[in-house]
Amino acid sequence: MSLYPGQSRGVFGGLVPDRIAEHLVGALLIDPTRPCVIDPLATTAGDAEAEHLLTVCTRAASHPHFAPGAGQHLTQLCLSNADTLLPAAVRIATQVELPTPLLDALERLANDPQADVDLLTKLQGMLPTETQVLAHSAVALGNAVVARLKAANDESGGSRAALAESMRKLAIALSGVGQPSQALAAATEAIEIQRSLTEQDSDGYLSNLARILAAYSVLLGEVGRRSEALDAVTEATSIFRQLVIKDPGTYQGRLAASLYNLAIQRRELAQVQQQEALAAATEAVDIFRQAAEQDPQASIRGLASSLTARSALLGDAGRQDEAIDAGTESVEIYRQLAEQRPDAYRAELAQCLNNLAVMLGAAGQRDEALAALHEAVGIHRDLAARHPNDNVPRLASSLYNLASRFNDLGQPDDALGAAHEAVAIYRQLAAQHPEVYLGNLGASLHNLAILLREMRLPQKAIIAATESADIHRRLAEQDPARFLPILAVALNNLAIQLRGSEPQSDEVPAVATELAEIQARLGGEDPDTFLRHLASFLQGLATSYAGPETL
What we know:
Layout: H1 19-30, H2 38-44, H3 47-61, H4 69-80, H5 82-92, H6 100-110, H7 117-126, H8 135-152, H9 157-176, H10 180-200, H11 202-222, H12 226-246, H13 248-269, H14 274-294, H15 296-316, H16 320-340, H17 342-362, H18 366-386, H19 388-408, H20 412-432, H21 434-454, H22 458-478, H23 480-499, H24 508-521, H25 527-542
Helix pairs in contact: 1-3, 1-4, 3-4, 3-5, 4-5, 4-6, 5-6, 5-7, 6-8, 7-8, 8-9, 9-10, 9-11, 10-11, 11-12, 11-13, 12-13, 13-14, 13-15, 14-15, 15-16, 15-17, 16-17, 17-18, 17-19, 18-19, 19-20, 20-21, 21-22, 22-23, 23-24, 23-25
């Protein structure tokens, strides 16, 4: 079957895409006066034919002349032939410009209480790990599968393991649409199920426990629970090391992915873990590089993400040339991947460009850093307009860096504009998810205050510095080990702003006293130590990661 004429072997091929054929298909989809010839074709289509049929029909339905009737007919066609067409819909949704009828069909199936759980589970398993287009479909299907498996109340080991795995996938999907608390709840429940199964049958379920622990670690890190995140990924890495000894072919890649996550969590937790973090990232790069030589398609993305983490850690260690080399290689890989699968990898390309810009800026290559950031911001703006949940925070991170680069190049107006936009985005995000973004808001306000002071806007600088200090006070109450040194730096900045005001503010003594008390509490650390703490925190805010790496 072919909806385009001339597709048989040995026959002159027609124009592809064929606008006339698409127009005819659109007319057939909305014509109520006669049976649509597309319907019987759908019932007999094989996999490739189903993809071809849906591609043509989806393109036809996107034409304004046939809206909304053609799209509605296509959605119903998918549901009437769910076993055949919905798997094809998942495969092509990221390849067509306007996949709305296909996404609507997936959503309606997920919300149908009579939908077959085996089909729902199959579709959930087919979804790509990295996707913008299918992100909400992943949540809908995940919720549907989990609800049905729970309702079945099957206590057998296989059914419980299937429930835990579906909840792991649901947790990752929820994180991808900006629901970190719900994601963490799903992962926590999956961990409990999998631990229980592992206690009964370690050999049968240990690898599943490691996979869920790895995802759980990433989610804990997203909500700022760094110590717990490190514990979870350390346990996952330990398990994968055991499994690699028994079956290196199956588990070597998963060990490398776990090492990548381990490096990130160690870097985020504290400066004292930097050497261990770099060692983990280096080991991940080595494993993925060796695997990519044998099977590039399976391992090249893991190599790119691990190179990004290693680049950031090399930058932390002051090894800027090596950091730039690793970051540049990562960007080159992601650029190739984004050309092949833009839905999956364009956002990650922008993240890598953002990270490379940080390294270039630290090395004094300011023009190159600015060029990389302009590209990153452009990509993030485009993606945020289409898929805001996952891309708006990334846009804020790129703008945060862009403000610094503009300032370095002596463009204060541009720097201030980018800084204000970053603050506005983080303010909105922190209102929705304070556990994730409040620290980012505090740090971006800190930088904004410095820019405002440099532009001789002292009153506005004081307002920004005061809010930054207030935020860090709240955070230090919740996590003193991480945020008390940063609060000290925020207070130091506030004191500088207040001393520079005319007349000098009478709040200076109170701020100085609070700063001295924190310094004494931290054991008499000097101002340089405070600045190193701030540099670490701001570097973490400036750097973003692809991921989580699939396990």
